[in-house]
Structure formats: C-alpha cells, structure tokens
Fold these 2 entries.
Entry 1:
Amino acid sequence: MEKLIITAAICGAEVLKEHNPAVPYTVAEIVREAKSAYDAGASIIHLHVRYDDGTPTQNKMRFKECIDAIKVVIPDVIIMPSTGGAVGMTNDERLQPTELDIEMATLDCGTCNFGGDDVFTNTENTIKYFGKRMIERGIKPELEVFDKSMIDMALRLAKKGFIELPFHFDFVMGVNGGIDGTLRDFTFLRHSIPEGATYTVAGIGRYEFPLAAVAIIDGGHVRVGFEDNVFLSKGVLAKSNGELVAKVVRLANEFGREIAKPDEARRILEMKAHDRLK
C-alpha cells in the first residue's frame, strides 16, 4: 500500500475566527498554519487566501504573497491553490492563481447547492475552461467531487481532452447539498472511479475523522483542516491545523500506513516535474 498523503485545507473561504480564533486571515497567520500542518505530517497545503479582515479573495498577488511566504519556511511543500474561490466569483476571477508558477490546483467538477440561497456554479463549459487552462500550464488538477455525477462529468471530459490523466479525485463528503458522509456513500464514490486513479477524502464536520479512517484502511488519502472542520473532537476546538493533521497521523500509525513526504506525494500522484520550481 502506498504511503498516505495528507492534505491540509488550512482556511477555506467561509470559516471565520468566530468559528475558531485560530482560523488564519493574514499572511503571517497563513504561514503559521501551513507550517503547523506540514510539521505534523501534511505534504499538501490546499490554499485559499483572505485579506487581513477575513474577506476571501482570488487576487493573484495575494496568492503570490502567501505562497512566497510559505515557501520561505517550508520550501518542499506542495501548495494547491483553490480555483473554487467563493460563491459568486467569476471564472476568470477564480482562475487567477493559475497564472502563477504552481504545481497543483483544484478543479470543481459540477454545480452544488451550498445551503440557503448559495449555489456553487460549475457548468460544463466552466469545467472545460478550467481543465484546458491547467493542461496549458502543466498544473495537476485535483478533481473536486461533491456527488457521483461529478465523477461521471470528469470521466466524460477527460475523454474529450479537457482533463489530463492520471486522475486524482477529492471526495468532498457531508456538504449541505452534496453527497452524505456515510460509509455507504464513500463506497459508492470509491467504486465509481477508474482503476489506477488516486483519491483523497475530505469529510465535512463530524464526518472528517471517520472518513479519514476509512480512506487510510482502503489505501486512499486524506484531507483535514479548518476549511472542513474546526473541532479536534466533539465540542473541543482544534488549536491549529497541525492538531488535526496529527490526529490523522495517529490513525495512520494505528493502521500501519506510513506518511508521505512531499516528494513522495509527487511520485504517487504522478505530478510533472516543474523545472521552474526547483
């Protein structure tokens, strides 16, 4: 079984300091949380960025400022910017971080209700547009799926040349409006991806650690972090993203999975060499 890749989604676009005071907004706070996750065992940092007041942004220069600052402290980590951004952003606004020298980025594969009146819109043409940009830039896409139909969309668009193989999926489970976080639903998604594809599981809220355990046992990979869940256990706020990553490492140790370092994660995911990043 391959080593376990842990992704830390350190801040997201929606979670606030009101939910957990350790949620990072400023560049210094984002660096602090990225390092805490890396030191605990994460090899990938899934990055949203904020302005200092907590407002989410896809501003290219804000991403560059944060990425450069992270790389000073942890130069070998994989940084995977979000192209999801926040509900209501335009396609070109969301794609700004792909103009930077990045190795990996998220690619959302369908539209999903996000509770209340919020709809996270990703039309087929949007997905094609994003996929083509990532191919042109040599960026490894992590295919974000909130339901089984989004896997089907990714498979169809890959056949048409809009998504480059090999596939790497992220099962985002437990979102209000997406697939539930049950073992039944995990199994449904797991057996819907092609042989040879890799996957990560991101369980939202109370689903985070049960789904992490299932993915560890199955040979998949795990995402944790404040974007998905701010609690270490029921009613106990995590003091850092590193605490959430450390809990996954403890689970992996119990089940005999070794933790992948960033270069090992690059090999497992068959990421292209980026000479400009060396």
Entry 2:
Amino acid sequence: MISSMMNSKKPITLITILLTGVFIYAGTRVAYTRPGLMMRIPTSSNKKTPYLFRAGVSTEFHNFNPFNTARGVYFETELGRGFSVGFSGVTPGDTTRLSKLEESTYSAPAEFGFHFQQRVYSYNDISVSVGLQDVVFQSDQTSEEMLSLNTSLLSAFLVLSSEKDLGEYKFNTYFGFGTGGLAPVDADTLPAVLGEDGKVIADSIETNAGVFIGFLMKTPYFSRRGGMDIVGEFDGTGVNVGLRIPLTSDYRLNLGFTHMEKLPEWGNRYWSGHPGFTIGFDMAVPRDPRMRVQGGPSGPTNIYATTKSAGPDGSIPIHRDSTVAMANVAVETLRDSMALMNNEMRNLLVRLNAMEQNSKFLSDSLSSLKLETNVSEKNMNEALRYLSRSLRYFYAGDYREALKEVDLALELNPDLALAYARRGSIYYKLGDVQRATINWNLALRLDPEYTDVRNILKALNENKLKSASIIKE
C-alpha cells in the first residue's frame, strides 16, 4: 500500500515539527474504520458519547476489473473524562500498478492499529481534542516476527470541533492539524518508488504536510431512527463524501466516495490515492438500553424511555449521562411553563368574558341614551310648539288659553326656563303678582344668566315694574 510515511532516519526533524506546531495531516486508511463519525479524519465533541461502544466493518472498492478492494474493522469506546480509545484492523489493497494487477502476486500485510484521544478543552459548542492514532502493528511474511511495530505510520493530531443546531438540522465542523504516515501518496506529485514486493520504499517519499477539514450534517430524514448524516471532508490529499443511513436507532449503513476529484482517472492510477467506493456497516450499543438518547449527530436517538431508569422520587440517578439530565430538566421546565400558560389562558378567557359583558352593558346603555336623547328632543320640539301657540294667545289677550299652552309645554319639559318666565308674565297680566313672582324665580333658578327675568324681579322690588317690560318673547 502506498502511504505517506515518516522518514525513520530523521527523528530530530519529526520532534522539531511537533514542537513548533507544524503538523502533518493525519494519514488515511480504509474509510469509516477510524474512531469518530467521519470517513478518514479525526473528530471531537463537547458531549459524552451516548453509547458504550461502536463497532463496524467497511470495504473500499478501488477497481472492479480486475477486482481490488481494501477491508477493515474497528471498535471504539469512551472510558470517561473525554478520553476514548479505539482499535482497527485493516487489510490494504494491492499497490501493484493497475496494468499489472492481474499478474500480481503481492500479498498486502495485515495492519492492526490502536487509537487514543483526549478532549482537552470545551466551551459551549466548541471543543478541542488531541490524540495519537495509527499505532500500527503489521504482519511481515518475510520476517520471523509475526507482528512488528511500524513507527513510520504513527499519527498525532489536534482537532477543533464546532457543533451548531440549525432548526431541524445539526451541523458539525472539524478542523485540525496532524502528523502521519497513512495519508495517500499521489504518484504524480511525490517520487514514490515501489520495490519488487510492491511496497513503497520509505526513503523514496517525502513527508506530506497540511491540514484537514470536514463537516457533518444531521438531517431530519429517518428521524425516528436517528436521522441521516451527510459527511464531507478534505483529508489533506483529496475530497471524500458520504452518507450515514440509519437502519435502526443503533445500526447504520455507511456509503461514500473517496477522492472524488480523481474519479476521471479511475483506470490509470495506483491504488493509493485512487478514487474508491466505500460501503460499511456499524453498530452502537447505548449506555442504557431502556433509554436511548439524542447524542448529536453521532448517536442513536430517543425512540422510547421508561420511568424505571429514574429514581423513586422521579430524579435521574447521578451516574446517568449529564446530557440526559439536562434534557429532562428542560422537559420539566417546559411542562411547568405550559401549565402556567394554560392557567394564564384560562384567566384571559375569564377576562375576555367580563369584557364582553361590559361591552354588552355599554352597548345597551348607549342605546338607552340615544333613546332618551331622541325622546328629549321630541319633547323639546313639542314644548316649543306649545310655547309658540301660547305667545299668539298672549298677544291676542287671551291669557287663559296662553296659560294652558304653557302648562302643556311644562308637562313635556319641566326644566324649560322660558316656559316659567312666560307663565310668570301671564300671571302678572292676570293680576296675580305672587304667582308671577314665583314663576319668575323658578325661571331664574333654572337659568341664572336669564337677564330679562332678573331685571323684572329687580324692578318689581323697586315698584318700578311697567307693563311694557313684561316678558313676551
């Protein structure tokens, strides 16, 4: 297998690179056989994994005629405090030139790798992890030793993760630096040389340097089984894309393409760095089989939950995952909020009914007021007509008839000052000064600004009242 390997004769150079922080991107092997959620790059998370462990298998198809594949299995688990370990076993593909693949007798050595990772920082949706992966032991058919440690494949990395919630979607971004010897080597850019056994001569290649970046988007499709994940990454040498399709809440089918940018060169390249089609299968065992939890894009989802997992008082045991506890607190808070909202809604309905009653009362009062106003206006008009007729009788000298018309006007509107003033004038003409004075005082009480009546009363008191000053209008 053509791989990016560290020159074993230059340990001082490697140490210098590590100390200065100029990392070489992590090597890549069979897609979906490294710890984490991506195809070939490492990941990080600010949450504890919701599963006890994950395990799976994966196969990369690099050519169909002649047939050439690479296969692998993996296992990973988080031990606690952000520290996780993993194991992978890989059988690489044939690195013989494609034109001689049918004649090749090359047998790729089996590789067994160990992976270690530690979360060193987390804040809100940001986390940083460092790790060591590809502690690889290879089977060597030419040596008496069954397995030998290949230190040139060792990879150290630092990865920064950002996890965002976008409504029904979740978007994770991973960016990092790394060292490693498993990144595919492009035969067009690196002077890789194959030996007679088909292996790359270590001194013939240079160590690649760079960064890796990737994203993972959890979609609401198949949400009951955990949601389908869309994976995209640049592993330092090429672009890989894939899908993680949930078969159940615990099992996923992994599909993908590696080195998409090299698909047009499918038939004329070495295997290493060659585009390939990947199919894999993984299984996640939840921490509590009775309560599946939503652990972000990585984990199974909450299909069911039983109250047996809670304490006798309804509280969550202390050993339960903190994410579950926070989720339960949030649910209880929402329930209390909904209960308060229901009470407030009932209060608002009561207030609305009261306002409707007040509105009806005001409407009835307005109608009554309009009716009274109409009646008052009608009575006023009728009273004024009686006063008009009384004035005609007054001028005609028929004071008795004039008095009757004034009385009819006062029956319709007892607060009409003009009617009392008129009746006072009629009584004065009839010679009844006392009644005339009473009516003039009533008119003045109803209308204190009635100047004519005030002048008549003043003249009456001074015995200067003349018949010409009697009110007739």
